[in-house]
Sequence to fold (128 residues):
Amino acid sequence: MLLKLKKFLDDLYKPGDKPDSKGNASYYCPFCNHHKKKLVINLDPKNTNFQKYHCWVCNAKGGSIFSLLKRTNKNTFYFTELKNILGKKYGYTTTNKPIQTHLELPKDIHPLHISDNSPEYKAARVYL
Ligand SMILES: [Zn+2]
Fold:
């Protein structure tokens, strides 16, 4: 996974350095464009800092590579590709807000659970 992720980032941004023993790889920072590789991204899934990035010059930082893609205005295609690379465990999950739906019966329909004194209601109850 680490190699795929490294290649993904190398293709998207300029190629970064080989990750160190902790999985930190240095990249050119897309925020401040410093001439040296000052953006460090952690590429080791076993590290608690996995996916975190930080630029030592402009202090740009974030908790996931998805946020890096978002902040650098990358196409949704790359989000899908990153999801595939990271898999379910580290994949991006959107907050599942329940979809609000409002259903309404047509005005001339009267639900039978609401009692009514009309002859139609009584006839319908008798029919059932
Ligand atoms: Zn920077």
Summary: The chain is about 35% helix and 10% strand. The CA atoms of residues 27 and 91 lie 22 Å apart. The chain has a mean pLDDT of 89. Residues 29, 31-32, 34, 38-39, 55, 57-58, 60 surround zinc ion (CB under 6 Å).
